[in-house]
Amino acid sequence: MTAGQLLVASLFAVAITLFAGVEIVSRREGSRVPSLGDVCGVVMRYRVGPLPVGRIAMFGFWWWLGWHFLAR
Amino acid sequence: MDRPELVAEVDRAWARPVVLTPVFALISLVGGALPSFSLPANLLVLGAGGALFWLGMSSALPRRPAPARLPRRAAWWLLPLLLFGVVEGATFLNGSYAYPTLSRLADPVLEHYWARAAGYFGWLWAFWAMVRR
Questions:
Q1: Number of structural domains chain A divides into
Q2: Residue B105 maps to a domain
Q3: Which of the 8 DSSP states describes residue B75?
Q4: Residues of B in contact with A58 (CB under 8 A)
Q5: Are both A69 and A38 inside the same structural domain?
Q6: Which residues, listed in sequence order, are joined to residue A48 by a DSSP beta bridge?
Q7: Helices marked H in B58-77 — which ranges?
């Protein structure tokens, strides 16, 4: 692994650790930080007229992510 | 004294973790053996993802309630999200193998059977968690 690859991998590791850290904080009793699930729930409730845009966007993104990493 | 009526939404039998865990595990064990760019891998992701997408858009399953609005402290989520977005965006625009994107970094890892199977398993469970929201 080159120095550049190591740098990028470290930055991604920091981001993932931060995701985990905020989630742990959100699950503590009395925490005012919402969990990732709650944030996703609010985003997924977003609608434009009758169209559940938030739901379609989240499902579409996750579907694409699986295809991108596991099938392409 | 009036007693409010209690309404409990009961999960369908097939939607319980005791049923879904082995189903997702089976899909993952099969998916782990399918190489990238193969037709079976594409069909598996499109089929499993399509089924979960359809379930999520239908009203076949009860959903967990979400908060009416996000408190200000939800902004903490921007910290990892922005770092992730900046690194991914910069490496994508750079376009070189010296500074690879996350998918390029993950490719050699996902060539291993168990890592790939674990990737499928995590992807399916996270998809399911969104379907229930």
A1: 2
A2: yes
A3: G
A4: 130
A5: yes
A6: A51
A7: none
Map tokens 């977005």 to a residue: B85
Domain presence at residue B68: no
Of A1-15, A53-67, B56-70, minimum mean pLDDT range: B56-70
* Candidates A15, A32, A69; nearest CB to B71: A32
Count of domains forming chain B:
1
Q: Which residue has the higher pLDDT, A39 or B8?
A: A39
Give the per-residue pLDDT at A70: 95
For residue B20, report the phi and psi dihedrals to the nearest 5 degrees.
Answer: -70, -35
The answer to whether residue B1 scores a pLDDT higher than 50 is: no
B106: CB partners within 8 A, 6+ apart: A69
ipTM metric: 0.91
Note down the domain range covering A72.
34-72
CA distance A47 to chain B (A): 13
B29 touches A at CB < 8 Å: no
Name the residue facing A66 among B45, B79, B91 (closest C-beta). B45
What secondary structure does DSSP assign to B98-124, as a single string? SS--HHHHHHHHHTSHHHHHHHHHHHH
| Backbone Cα Rg of chain A | 17
Overall residue count recorded for chain A in this entry: 72
